Amino acid sequence: MDKFVIRGGNPLLGTVRVSGAKNAALPAMAAALLTEEPIILENIPQVRDIETERKLLAAMGAEVELGYGRAQHRTTICCRNLVNAEASYELVKTMRASTLVLGPLVARMKRARVSLPGGCAIGARPIDLHIGGLKKLGAKISQEHGYIEARAERLRGGRIVFERITVTGTEDLLMAATLAEGETVLENCAREPEVVDLTALLNKMGARIEGAGTPTIRVRGVEQLHGARHRIIPDRIEAGTFIVAGALTGGDLLVSGCEPRHLGALLQKLEECGVQVQTSGDSVRITGDAPIQAADVVTEEYPGFPTDMQAQYMALATQAEGTSIVTENIFENRFMHAQELVRMGAHVRIEGSSAVVHGKTPLSGAAVQASDLRASASLVLAALVADGETIIDRVYHIDRGYERIEEKLRGVGAQIRRIGEFLPKRVVSPGVAV
Ligand code: EPZ
User: Fold this and answer.
1) pLDDT score of 116 more than 90
2) Is 312 in the pocket of ligand 1 (CB under 6 A)?
3) Cβ(240) – ligand 1 distance below 6 Å
4) Is 0.90 topped by the overall pTM?
5) DSSP secondary structure code for residue 247 in this structure
6) What is the pLDDT of residue 114?
């Protein structure tokens, strides 16, 4: 298994470019199931979860071509000849977002057999709201042998009020409603930029959706959808991770190719911590090594402070002057990184859904273990300011959502290298992955 070896102490200097958003690319690829015509997606990140999604769609009979060379961030998907409507446990257990095929399959193929995702490192993460919503659209749902079976001759428009804001739940039902008979009104929806980006793609495919980005979304169902070309938005969480790296290491870092508008809550919090932040066009610049001031943070749904930045923010809080209280409101078990940071010398105490972080404490390099995608990012950030060498094990977690993070960080002066045999797959010729 791959590991990262990081020697801390270097300020980050220069420009680091952000890739496309994993959490926008995954629903966009699932949306291709809604039409028999080709969907061309650009700015697709080369990360492990995209590879899993490719396998998921290919197993149903979709033609999925991951670009290579100059087109390596382009994907063409054609779901003309789907042979089955199933998402197997083998794939779903490696990536929960696989459940995003449920709505599109029922809508287009009239049936879907999707494995229940099971538990996850950061929380129970049930999909009851997805299932409840599909029932409201007239689907017959049964569960057996760990699989959800959903059937509907044609979904019927309806009114769905989400008991709780759910990102993929909103995306799943949005896609299902595009081919339903009549109008669907979704209320208490997620307002994440990824939901807005998916809607932009669906409307290019001929869907009739209004209100994305607000709590209420209206979908007027159509008979069928057609092909489209769409560029995926930048990854705001990858951008946020690099921005915190810049703040932590006290260099002069330009994070380019991002959308500063999507980073409002994070940038505001960093300014509260005394970090110098400048935004212009598609870039955010982090300069200087002014002492970081402690500030409390509470994770919320967008546009609040993202839970996917909580772990990275905790790494920053270990280097802040004073005590920061980090409260996690979205997932019930998302402090796995805290004990690993303590192994590096941090002072973190967990009290229910809050972590009390005393700073500033010098960190020292140690052998640590990643437990999930964002926890591993937080360990990389801590290692960048730790004294000596840190060895991070299980970096396959980070490869799920960060495209060649070690190369990008090395490009701005970090001392980081990967040891082990894994390199993200790269297509050597159309349709063949190595
Ligand atoms: C999306 O997950 C993201 N994943 C997550 O990013 C992100 O952390 C999360 O939204 C919150 O922002 C993708 O977009 C692929 P939710 P999702 O449904 O949709 C509960 C990363 O690091 N809930 O908004 O699965 C749930 O348990 C990943 O890139 C139900 O109870 O999250 C959670 O407590 C990690 N029943 C809360 O709602 C349901 O049916 C919010 O979850 C659905 C959700």
Assistant:
1) yes
2) no
3) no
4) yes
5) H
6) 97
